[in-house]
Structures are given as C-alpha cells and as structure tokens.
Amino acid sequence: MSDTQGKCQQNTGTCRVVDCANQPTDIPEYADISGLGVLLGFLIAAYLVIIFLIGYYVFAFDPRLDIFRAEDDATSIAPTINIVDDFVLRKVHHVLRKTRKIPPFSYLWSEDPDKGKEFHKVMNQCVYALVDSQSITGIAILVSGYYSLHCGVSSYHWYLIVYLAWFASLTHLSGLTFLRHHLHNHQGARQWRLFCMFVLLVLLAVALFPTAHFDLTYIDYNDGNIIDQGNTGKDFRLTDHAVCYFKIKEEPYGILPDRWDSMVVSMALLVYGYLIRALKLFRGPRGTWYRFKRKWKDSCQQFLRWMASIPSDRWPAWLRFACGAVFLKPCVLFYLLLRGLLHYYVSMASEVSFFPWIVSEPGPC
Question: Which InterPro entries did the record assign (predicted)?
C-alpha cells in the first residue's frame, strides 16, 4: 500500500485503495452524490427554473423592447421584432387578459407601471438566484468528484456526478438567456458569470472523458453485473474505480468506439451551448446576426425572383405550370420553412419549450 493510499484511508476512514487490477465487487454508499436529498435538490431547482422562466416569458418579457437597453428604460424598441415571440405572446395574452379579475392575474395584469416593474424585478431575482445556485452546485459536485477519484469513487457514482453536473449546466445556461437585460446593466456580474461558465465547462468536459468507456446497455442495474458476458470489450462494471477509466492505454480499459462517438457528440453539444449562450450576452454578435440574416434574406429573394422570371410567355402553358410546380413553388416553400425555423431558433419561445424537454431526457452517458 502506498503512502498516498494510506493517508487517504487514515484521513477519510472510508476511502478505498485504488487498484485497477483488483476491482471491488460492491458499490459503496456515497450519500453526498447518490443520496435522495442531493437528487431532489437538483430536480427541484431545475423545475423551479422552468416555472419561473415560463412566468417571466408570459408576464414580463416584451419582444418589442431592446434587450440591451438601460435598466429602467421601457421605450427602446428592438432593431427587429421576432415574429415567433410576437405571435405566441399575443395569443397567450389574449387568453389571459380574460382572467384580469382573478387573483393573482389581477396583479400581474395591473395597468399600474410601478407594479409591472416590481414584478419584473422579482422574476429577475428569482431566476438570478436559481441560476447562481445551479452554477455553484454543478462546480461543487464536480470538484468533489475529482477529489474522490484517488479514493476509488465507483463508476456508478462518477456517472451520477457527470449526469448531475450536466443537468446543472443546462439549467444554468437556460436561465442566462433570460438574464441578458439584467447582466447587460451589471457588467461585473456578467464577467463573473462568464468565468463560472468557463470553469464548469472545463470541469464537465474533462469529466465526460471516462464515459467513452461506459456501456450501460449491458449492465444489470440490480447488481451492477454484465448481462451478456459474450460481448468482447464490454467488460465495464458499475463497481469499478472510475479513475481507472482515465487510462486510455492500459487494458482492459480501452475506449469503446460506439461510446466514443457519444462522448464526442456530448462534448460538442456542451461547447456549442456554452458558446451560443455566451455570445447572446453581448450586443456585438446580435448585430452580426442581423446583418447576416438581412443579406441571406435579400439573396434568397433575389434568387426566387430570378427563378420566377425564367418562364417565358412563349413557352407552352403546361411547361410554365410544370416549371412553377416542380421548381419555383418547392423553393419558395423551402425558403419560408427555413426562415420560420431560424426565427424560432433565435426566439425566447424556443428556450421555454426546449428546456423542459431537455430536463426530462437522459444525460450525456
């Protein structure tokens, strides 16, 4: 037994000796990771974020106002109004206005501007607090997991650590989209958020690496054993030390090709999500997007006008009809569909509708 392992056992009392050649056969209890209170803490916080984001979108968000306006400015109009948000909110508000006399809608729909500002600030503070808690807990559980690696934390607990950290990062990123106006007027808070985002991104990206070894489809969750022993290379066990799966050159801990693809895709989605949310916090990328959208729109419309001018009056009627039905109309339909999808992609409605679905889906492993 090495000095490091001896100190680990002496300091913690429950710390395991890490020996990749002799793996344990049972999963030890680790309430700080797999305890019911920990799981409920992440789940409750995530679904509270969903509730507050929906409430913020329905009662406080105004697609006509510029996101990057001053703190108390309620007159700056956005350069362009997202047609999806405008349509959805007009329909939702039309229905909810009929409930003005029913509490608490009577307060939410009050014509008093002071009450409207107060409600807006309350929603901001609620989302702000929940987003911060998810960022801190995500970093904390990853740091705890890294610290426990040299004490032989099991693959099962490492799987839960990555899952919960992924869960926390999604909650954090979804809330940041709704805090753009607040963070624009508080530059110091925005810089700290970006720093925490980067720390969580690095920790989670590294933590995803061992999942390239995990093949959970062959695991019996009752005892952690492999269901089909005849699968070559599928020798992963939930009871194994997670630190052993950081060793990519030592057998039998080789990377599984199918799980490698899943891990790479998870990392790519993680980096993409963080990059997009970070860019949305600044005014410059929005201007670049508007200029690109305008040029793309003008180019597409110019191409469609050119296609519409191709059929000549000298052509037979059936040929002009065939040209329009086979080429022009499908191109117009594709252009309108793609334009609608782009409007939906950059809308707040997509954030609200996409996040609850992501929360209910399994994590990166």
Answer: Elsinochrome_Biosynth-Asso
Q: pLDDT (tens digit, 0 to 9) for every residue of the chain, 365 residues total? A: 334 334 344 344 456 667 677 777 777 777 677 777 778 877 888 788 888 888 888 877 888 888 888 877 777 888 888 888 888 888 888 877 776 665 655 555 555 555 666 777 777 788 888 888 888 888 888 888 888 888 778 888 888 888 888 888 888 887 787 788 888 888 888 888 888 888 888 998 888 887 777 666 555 545 444 444 444 344 567 777 778 777 654 444 444 545 667 777 778 888 888 888 888 888 888 888 888 888 988 999 898 888 888 887 788 888 888 888 888 888 999 999 998 888 888 888 887 776 555 544 445 54
On the 0-12 / 13-18 / 19+ scale of CB atoms within 10 A, 300 is middle
Q: Residue 130 falls within a domain, yes or no? A: yes
Ramachandran assignment for 363, one of left (phi > 0), alpha (psi -120 to 50 degrees), beta (any other):
beta
Domain assignment present for 94: yes
Total-model pTM: 0.74
- Report how many domains make up the chain: 1
Give the 3-state secondary structure of residue 8: helix
How many residues in total does the chain contain?
365
3-state helix, strand, coil in the chain (%, to 5): 70, 0, 30
- Locate tokens 């959208």: which residue? 293
Residue 336 parent element (H or E): helix 329-345
- Whose CA is closest to 39, among 168, 226, 139, 194? 168
Query: Is residue 87 in a domain?
Result: yes
The range of the structural domain enclosing residue 211 comes to 30-282
Q: Is residue 194 part of a domain?
A: yes
| Cβ proximity of 248 and 211 under 8 Å | no
Residue corresponding to tokens 């030592």: 250
Q: Quick one: which of 43, 51, 35, 34 has its CA closest to 352?
A: 51
Return the residue matching tokens 């049972």: 26
